């Protein structure tokens, strides 16, 4: 199975929103958000592709001229355990640096131990833990890395 990381195309957006619903149900990002991100910051929406199928994505948004937020990194269930999360993260950091950002930030559920470990291995540090960051009971670790 061959894989690559590339910029998202408009034809990917529906599938990415389907992956969100498969993994997160009603709380997954809606298709509209993918379209808006694609229109506003096309260079910050990346897709992993295995053979001819979009298999995951990373979505970044600017916080300010120096900082970018990794809003989401997702690998579809059928493509997990292939190293795609690591590849998407690494490629996202390269793209962010090329775009002139100095720091990447993200939030992750403290209970998502696989994601926390992935980010720590990539050099991210926990800045703080915020209770109810995404609503009641949705605590998050805020992590950051200099690019």
Reconstruct the topology from this structure.
Blueprint: E1 3-7, H1 13-24, H2 31-40, E2 45-50, E3 53-62, E4 67-75, H3 84-98, E5 103-108, H4 113-121, E6 125-130, E7 140-146
Parallel strand pairs: 4-5
Antiparallel strand pairs: 1-2, 2-3, 3-4, 5-7, 6-7
Helix pairs in contact: 1-2
Total DSSP helices: 4
Q: What is the first-to-last residue Cα distance?
A: 30 Å
Strand order of the largest sheet: 1-2-3-4-5-7-6
The assigned structural class equals alpha+beta
Defining key terms:
Aminopeptidase, 147 residues, single chain, alpha+beta, seven-stranded mixed sheet
How would you describe what is shown here?
It is a single chain. The chain has one domain: Gcn5-related N-acetyltransferase (GNAT) (Aminopeptidase). It has four helices and seven strands; from the N terminus they run βααβββαβαββ. It has helices at 13-24, 31-40, 84-98, 113-121; strands at 3-7, 45-50, 53-62, 67-75, 103-108, 125-130, 140-146. Helix 1 (13-24) crosses helix 2 (31-40). The relative contact order is 0.14. The mean pLDDT is 93.
Question: What's the gist of this structure?
Answer:
The chain has 147 residues and is α+β, with helices and mostly antiparallel strands. The protein is built from four helices and seven strands.
């Amino acid at each position: 199975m061959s894989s690559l990381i590339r910029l998202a195309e408009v034809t990917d957006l529906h599938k990415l929103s389907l992956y969100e619903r498969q993994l997160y149900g009603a709380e997954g990002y809606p298709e509209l958000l993918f379209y808006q991100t694609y229109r506003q910051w096309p260079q910050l929406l990346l897709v992993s592709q295995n053979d001819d199928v979009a298999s995951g994505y990373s979505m970044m948004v600017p916080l300010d001229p120096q900082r970018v937020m990794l809003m989401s990194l997702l690998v579809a269930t059928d493509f997990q355990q292939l190293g795609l999360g690591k590849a998407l993260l690494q490629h996202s950091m390269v793209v962010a640096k090329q775009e002139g950002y100095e720091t990447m930030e993200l939030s992750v559920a403290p209970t998502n131990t696989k994601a926390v470990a992935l980010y720590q291995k990539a050099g991210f540090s926990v800045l703080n833990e915020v209770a109810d960051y995404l609503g009641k009971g949705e605590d998050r670790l805020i992590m950051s890395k200099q690019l």
